[in-house]
Amino acid sequence: MDRYDEIYRQSVEDPETFWRSEAAGIEWQQPFTLVLDDRRAPHLRWFVDGTTNICHNAIDRHLATRAEQTALIYVSTETGTEKTFSYRDLFEEVNRVAAMLVAQGVTHGDRVLLYMPMVPEALFAMLACTRIGAIHSVVFGGFASSSLASRIDDARPKVVLSADAGSRAGKVIPYKPLLDAAINLAKHKPDRVLLLDRGLAAPAMVEGRDLDWASLRRQHFDARVPCTWLESNEPCYILYTSGTTGTPKGVQRDTGGHAVALVASIKYIFDPAAASGEVDAVSGRRTFFAASDIGWVVGHCYIVYAPLLCGMASVMYEGLPTRGLDGEPDAGIWWSLVAKHRVNAMFTAPTAIRVLKKQDPSHLTRHDLASLDALFLAGEPLDEPTARWISEGIGKPILDNYWQTETGWPMLSTQRGIDPTMQPRFGSPGKPVVGFKLRLLDEATNAELAANEKGVLVIAGPLPPGCMSTVWGDDQRFVDTYWSLLDDRSVYSTFDWGIRDDDGYYFILGRTDDVINVAGHRLGTREIEESISGHPDIAETAVVGVADALKGQVAIAFAIVRNAASIGTPQDRLRLEGEVMATVDRSLGALARPARVHFVNALPKTRSGKMLRRALQAVTEGRDPGDLTTIEDPTALEQIRDLLKPPSSTPH
Ligand code: ATP
Ligand code: MG
Question: Which listed ligand is nearest to 348 at the C-alpha?
Answer without folding.
Answer: 1
